[in-house]
Amino acid sequence: MPEHSLIELDLSIVFLLSVILIWFMIGYQLILTLAGFFHYRNSLKEQRRIDAQQFDFPKVSVLIPAHNEEKVIQYTVEAMLTLEYPKDRLDILIINDGSSDATEEIVKRYAGLDARVRLFNVPQGEGGKGKSRALNLGLRQTDAEYIAVYDADNTPHPSALRYLMAQLLSDSSLGAVLGKFRTVNKNRNLLTRFINIETLSFQSMLQAGRWKLFKVATLPGTNFVIRRNLLDKLHGWDEEAITEDSELSIRVYEEGYRIKFIPYSVTYEQEPEKWSTWIKQRTRWVRGNNYVGSKFLKEIPKFKNKFIAFELLYLLSLYYVFLVAIISSDVLFLLGVFNVVMISLPGPYTMVWVIGIILFLLEILLALSYDREDKLSNIFLTLLMYFTYCQFWIYIVGKAIYLDLIKKEKRTWVKTVRFDVQPAPADGGDVNHHPSR
Questions:
Q1: Ramachandran angles phi, psi of 60, nearest 5°
Q2: How far is CA 285 from the centre of its chain?
Q3: What tens digit of pLDDT does each residue of 385-400 get?
């Protein structure tokens, strides 16, 4: 067989494997999306049952790590003070992690007005070591039975914490519960619109869908509650992890507990408004998952629940599965378009790609419909997102590989830049960006 025929055959096989891999991901996510729909429907009934019940709520401490958060901390504290939770059992602890702006002064003002608000200043020399470190230090300042975590830019709906606590009190098999986060500045620009679609879709597919099918969900960085005794048993947060949420999730499951996704517990948070900020944040996510994956990979044989191990590690490796499939298919598609390489394997590949894109759109729109965001403009945004925003992940993952494997740069916490954004109203309506003070 001529040499060029062998090369053509090899490339054809690579192309075919890429198509199969992408279709596997699309098919799996379609199943998760449909499962997420049923979880959403069941959650509406569950929410009504909880609203009709009375609970004897225990003490809960809300830990809020804060480093130079003067632009947002006022709105966050005010939102915490409107939480529908017994006042004598709510402790709001802001962990001031070496802020050099007015964060401390703003929190002190609120602490002087309401005893529920407390300020803990990380001792000099111990600050600036990341969110995990700040949370561990804050944990030592409370004896509460339950620990809630919110980021410093979050404005939860008044019912958010109550719904999370009701679930933990109702089911002893749950070690932690998490709610939904939504984008407060979603209408700011094209990037925040993309992020809004991405985050809502992720939660409806990989959180709601996996919980419905497999009783698996992973902790986010905010709007979650965990049992204090479990957290103590796990020795708190891993201070080497820059995605402390995914790392903690695996250890919770290893202790025999489950983590449930509660979509009607809602908080609002800022998302990056600049591409440079987005790149830094997402690179931290990938590098953080690199650490978690490498930490637990050798532990898989010891996992009590092998299926849980597969599911969690699949989520952690999703960046790389996606990367391999997209790069190989993109390159071969371009080579084929310019007649550099001919794909000799028979098959309706054009139709396969068209159907794949259509399924991608339908999955996203179905996921968005759970939050009533399946509007016409988002159809066009999702299509544009497929060819732009999704492709940027190639750069993000490539950069993370370079920093971790080639440059071997130390992983450090990179704070996401905040913007002057008004908090979301209680009814969940849109908010407008306001000029800097």
A1: -135, 135
A2: 9
A3: 988 898 888 889 889 9
pLDDT digits (tens, 9 = 90+) for 206-258: 899 999 998 989 999 999 999 999 999 999 999 988 888 989 998 999 898 99
| Closest listed residue to residue 252, CA positions, set 272, 235, 276 | 235
Question: What residues contact residue 243 under an 8 Å CB cut-off, 6+ apart?
Answer: 221, 284, 285, 288, 289, 291, 292
Q: Pick the closest to residue 63 from 90, 89, 87 (CA basis).
A: 90
Rg of the chain, C-alpha, whole Å: 23
In this structure, are residues 155 and 76 in contact, taking their beta carbons and an 8 Å threshold? yes
What residues does 9 pair with on adjacent strands? none
Calpha distance 22→322 (Å, rounded): 8
Copy the structure tokens of residue 28.
């799996």
Cβ pair 92, 110 in contact under 8 A: no
Contacts of 370 (CB under 8 A, 6+ apart): 36, 37, 40, 200, 204, 208, 263
Q: What is the pLDDT of residue 162?
A: 98
In the chain, the amino acid numbered 60 is V
Q: How far apart, in whole angstroms, are the C-alpha atoms of residue 112 and residue 52?
A: 35
| Rounded (10°) CA dihedral 421, 425, 427, 430 | -30
Of the candidates 136, 218, 120, the one whose C-alpha atom is nearest the C-alpha of residue 175 is 218
The DSSP 8-state label assigned to residue 433 in this structure reads B
Tokens of 80: 């915490």
Angle at the Cα of 363 (from 26 to 249), degrees rounded to 5?
A: 75
Alpha-carbon distance of 384 to 389, in angstroms, equals 8
Which residue's entry shows tokens 């070591």? 129
341 vs 407, which has greater pLDDT?
Answer: 407
For the whole model, what pTM was predicted?
A: 0.87
What lies within 8 Å, CB to CB, of 16 at 6+ separation is 345, 347
The mean pLDDT value for 176-201 works out to 95
Buried b (16+ CB within 10 A) or exposed e, 41-73: eebeebbeebeeeeeebebbbbbbbbbbbbbbb
Laid out side by side, the sheet with 174-183 consists of: 117-121, 90-96, 60-66, 146-149, 224-227, 174-183, 258-269, 155-156
DSSP secondary structure string for all residues of 240-251: T-SSHHHHHHHH
- Of the candidates 259, 113, 110, which has an alpha carbon nearest to the alpha carbon of residue 174? 259
> Mean pLDDT across the chain, nearest whole number?
85
Q: For the CA atoms of 126, 127, 131, 137, what is the dihedral angle to 10 degrees?
A: 50
